[in-house]
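This section describes the prediction task in plain terms. A model, or a person checking by hand, is given the sequence of a single protein chain and must write out its three-dimensional structure as a string of tokens. No templates, partner chains or ligands are provided. The sample shown here is typical of the held-out split.
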Amino acid sequence: MAHNWKRRLHKNYQQVLALEFAVEEINRDPYLLPNVTLGIHLHNTYHSDARTLESSLRWLSGKSQTIPNYTCEEKYKSVALIGGATSALSVQMGMLLELYKFPQISYGPFDPSLSDKVQFPSLYQMAPQDSSLHVAIVRLLLHFDWTWVGLIAPDDMRGEKFLGDMREEMRRHKTCAAFTEKISVSDRRHADMYVAILLRIAESSAKVFVVHGDADSLMILKNSVPFFHVTWKLWIITAYWDVTMTPHKHLGDSFHGALLFLHQTHVIPGFKTFLRTVNPAKYPEDSFLQSFWSSFYECPLETTEPAQEACSPNASLEMLPLKYFDMVASGRSYTIYNAVYAVAWSLHEMLLSLEMGSMEDIKNLVSQPWQLHSFLRSIQFNNTVGDQVVLDEERNPMARYDIMNYLILPNETEVLVKVGQFIPQAPPDQVFSICEMVIQWSSFDEKVFNSVCTELCSSGFKKIVREGEPICCFDCAQCSEGEISSKKEPDHCVKCPDHQYPNQERDLCLPKIVSFLAYEDPLGLSLACTAVSFSFITMVILLVFVKFQDTPIVKANNRDLSYTLLISLTLCFLCSLLFIGQPTTAICLLQQTTFGIVFTVALSSILAKTMTVILAFKVTRPGSRIRRWVQPRMSNSLVLICSMIQVTICGIWLGASPPFPDTDILSEPGHIIIECKEGSVIAFYCVLGYMGVLALGSFMVSFLARNLPDTFNEAKFITFSMLVFCSVWISFLPTYQSTKGKAMVAVEIFAILASSAGLLGCIFMPKCYVILLKPHMNTLEWIKNKGDSRARNHS
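The expected answer:
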């Protein structure tokens, strides 16, 4: 096998050691490739397209002098190439190796463009798919409410795809990219590009930046000058750029507190123990190890025993700081380890299928490496860790990520601390997890970074997006009447349910209080006491009239009509009690109809009494023919007929569209008012209108009869009582229409009591005054003397 290794970064030497460890482990396995010993060729790519092609040609030629399509005779031939730390390197090698159908297994980041089997039929990708990386990053942003984020990626196909996926996922979750920077790989060595990019990063209002790329494409960030430190940003870094490899101390400080998404891998059994034993004495032929060792220990490059004795006897890779070497297998080392085993198992299956086992057969076989393709495509096995390994990219699993916190301890030691993970195949409640208590943020700010364009609106306010700006930049406006915004939904206002209302801060819906004019209410209690008091007074007056029924003042103007009027007024006062208390269906049916009927009886009685005054005066004239109309039964008939008309109207009202209980949730904030609706508004105003006609008729008739010469003429009092009655009800109508809730009911009760009290006071109080306080005026002698006196005055 051959392997291309990136020499520039010392820490990548772990990948070479993972390759050697896997080969040694396979060679010790008696069941995998028995009687076959694997070997390796190491070639460097130097991060250069030209050097990559040169190394590939040198490997194919077998000599330092590269001759295309020419291979020197060697005892052992390679059967596959494991290489391509980046997509660009894989493409460069693949274009050349495809000419010979040579199997190439790429251990770099998974790139969908390399899955094109028409263009790269001999290339296989070992790395898991990063199709959920953008989802994992956005989940992290949402967890900390970071909605204003900068994005940095290389200006290539992988970087463009990552930026597109991130923008779409961020748009779906209403987060915004405040800053997008594409780093041109061709300009990565230009110093002026460093300053320009870093200035744009420093001037951006975003405090959190997502960095996607690898060591090659992000060389500008890797080699930045001390100016970088003052930007004070929090960095979220994806799997293929290891910030621990930064060459400058000040840059490492800048990344202190960064969060890294690393591919989740398992510990390779025995690998750490193997690393502890690695030294130049164990592998004297490894020139890379000699160079690596001499970079950190006081050892000469010569491999002679005296030279090796000059090295520190206790020197070990475990002693190196994290930025130079990591004892924990990286994601790429784990991928290389699996790649070696994939080649070994494919070769093992091919040997079994061809029933070959001798060295001569192997020599003949390896001269045709393209024969390994069918076995590589179908290979499937479990590695020593227990993970399933496949080279079929359609079955290649999605990557799982560990979220690591990069820290620089006070003793300048670098560490990576696991603080969370993202497993896309897990149950929904276990896909993303993070432990905030473990995370250490940047030293200059111990609080969690708040990377937003605009601070979230407080409770009771809603977002107003600024025109022409991203949705993350907005203004705040207070919620409208009847709406709230809570901490759970601060972006917009929601209307409270009908049975609830907003509190003063408009961040909580409170239950509305059921309200009606109750007896416990001071207003309801006062109106009820007033109604009972007036009804009691009316009953007392009725008893007075009954006791003095044979006196002239009671007998005048039809005694029976006076009784009927007093009883109806008593009922008028008491019917107002139907408007107090919680409305029910029965109460709503009785309220308006009872009120209309008893008031009609009262007005009909007044009309009949007024007619009696006029008819009685006309009867006193000689030869009058209307004596029969003055009889009591005629007056009673008039009251009955007028009342029956109102009963008929009320009956039609109840049959067509009767009153009903209903709730009013709008009139008073915080209250649900239970009230009686009229049902048919036309019928309601017909009842009032009919009473108005009776009142107007009584007023006109009594006005005409006010000056008739009679000792006990009631016309003057009836005229004034009708004036009070009409004034009350004319004022009632506009007031009733302009009020709502309990006030509307109170207005109607007041109109009933005021108009009834007006009738009672104007008609009966003068009579009671005479009956109780001036009894001498309630005698026939006084009436006769007054009549004689009036006659002498006229003569």
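For orientation: Residues 225-230 have pLDDT under 50 and may be disordered.
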